[in-house]
Amino acid sequence: MNGFERLVQYYRAEYQPEAAEELDIFRRQPSLPQAIYLAGQAMDDNCRRFNHQFRLTKEALNNATAALTASTAAIERCNDFEQLITLIEDLVGEITRIGELYIYDTALRIGAKRGIEPELVYLHAGTREGAKALGFDGNRKSIHRSELPTALQSLRPREIEDLLCIYKEDLKRLAQGASLPEIAAAPVCRYGRPRKSRRKC
Predict the structure, then answer these.
(1) What gap in Å lies between CA 3 and CA 17, rounded to an integer?
(2) Is residue 130 located within the same domain as residue 170?
(3) In Å, how far are 67, 82, 198 from 75, measured between CA atoms?
(4) pTM (predicted TM-score)
(5) Are 190 and 169 in contact (CB under 8 A)?
(6) Is 153 exposed, middle or buried (0-12, 13-18, 19+ CB in 10 A)?
(7) 130 and 166 co-located in one domain
(8) What is the tally of structural domains in the chain?
(9) Which of 46, 82, 131, 143 places its Cα 20 to 30 Å from the Cα of 171?
């Protein structure tokens, strides 16, 4: 088993179920407006803030939520993830403290309700660092799954995005020729949170 296969194995065991569970929160909302509201507020259906948006101010989240909910009809007209994320960036990208990670996460969560998933691996924050470790230009907006190591291609694009962020330090080690025992000994969690805690919550 090579290093990339090991990281995919770790991801499937440690994070894949949690990532699917998070999106299920939005899929099971009774309506698109309710899913948009929760996504805008970056919270689950128990009103708990997701970790990735923990530091955002209430004002920023309220402003973003207002812009999103006012554009429910436009969101409903989006036919694919690229249209959805572009629309959300246009709606909230200029709001103070709202950044590219919020935009991606919000598109992913609303997309779950719409039945829309990314077809590309979108780069932002830690994910960009993981991609750079694999030799990609950090200025790129996205990567096609076929450009990645074969082992990573077994995951969905949204899962690859996750893996690139979570294991960015391990990917740097792989790029430097680290042996598998060194990778195996490295901590699995890359978000600074306890293992098995809910991703982004």
Answers:
(1) 21
(2) yes
(3) 11, 12, 27
(4) 0.89
(5) yes
(6) middle
(7) yes
(8) 2
(9) 82
